[in-house]
Amino acid sequence: MSGGARSTANLYALGAIALWSSLATLVVQLPRVPPLLLTGLALVIGSVPAWPYARRWRVAPQALLVGVGGLFGYHFLLFLGLRNAPAVQANLINYLWPLLMVLGAPLLLPGMRLRPLHVLAAMLGFGGAALAILGGHALQGGLAWGYLPAFGAALCWAGFSLGSRWLLQRGLGFPTPALGLFALLSGLLALLSHALLEPAATLDAAAWWRIAVLGLGPLGTSFYLWDRALKHGDARTIGVLSYLTPLASTTLLVLSTGRAFGWNLAAAALLIVGAALLAMRASA
């Protein structure tokens, strides 16, 4: 894999990360929308840009399982975890997925070796993510069963991220527009789950506008960028870069709410940027 291809893939990954970073800020502006309803509507909207390419939606059953299992399974399990465990701890467990990507890449993808620098970078990245999420405060509360689905969500996203490359190497890969099919089916499953598990909600014009932005950005375009990154880049480096997501997300929340920046964000930034540089050096 050439250095130019790796650099382009890293840019695709950073584009996806930038969009995901706006997710929390958009979601807090929709406090009255049930999470499964929000996810379902956003995923369906996110599938719309791929509709003109529906002829390319024919994929192998294995690809459909990886795609829908990843998109729907991740969001469903994450919301389940957030509802049944302290949100900060559940979100921290969810952000094990970049570490799982780094550690899982050599197991699933032929030709990739796990070097000590990759492991060190992944651990530094997780430490930075923990600082960004916890805000310098200690964890509170005991064990909760919601931690299990939060960990399941991490497994789902790591599996989806590595699975697309694994399928490609075995001749079962799917074209990027097929993500529209995965998003559409995942959105419909989320809407069905909403009908079964959540109270009905009425949406005003402002809510619909924000949901459209959410669907076209963090739960839409980001998936297409992420797919391009994983198919053409180094999964170990991309996994470490992903720790920028909680840092950037927390920073945007601080800016949007007018709160003061804490020492934890500066320390998290140093750890995560250092981890990303280590990972790129290890993969060079």
Distance between the termini: 10 Å
Overall mean confidence score, pLDDT: 85
Largest sheet: none
- Number of domain modules: 1
Q: How many strand units?
A: 0
The helix-strand sequence is: HHHHHHHHHHHHH
Unreliable residue runs: none
Structural classification: mainly alpha
Global Rg: 18 Å
Report the portion of residues in β strands. Answer: under 5%
- Choose one word for the global shape: globular
Helix content: over 70%
Number of helices: 13
Condensed summary:
The chain is mainly α and 284 residues long. Helix content is 75%, strand content 0%.
Give structural notes.
- The mean pLDDT is 85.
- Helices cover 75% and strands 0% of the residues.
- It is globular and about 50 Å long.
- It contains 13 helices and no strands.
- α6 (97-108) runs parallel beside α8 (147-169).
- The chain has one domain (3-283).
What keyword list fits this structure?
single chain, 284 residues, mainly alpha, 75% helix
Structural topology:
Layout: H1 3-21, H2 23-28, H3 35-47, H4 61-84, H5 87-94, H6 97-108, H7 116-134, H8 147-169, H9 179-197, H10 205-232, H11 235-241, H12 244-257, H13 263-283
Helix pairs in contact: 1-10, 1-12, 3-9, 3-10, 4-5, 4-8, 4-9, 5-7, 5-8, 6-7, 6-8, 6-11, 7-11, 7-12, 7-13, 8-10, 11-13, 12-13
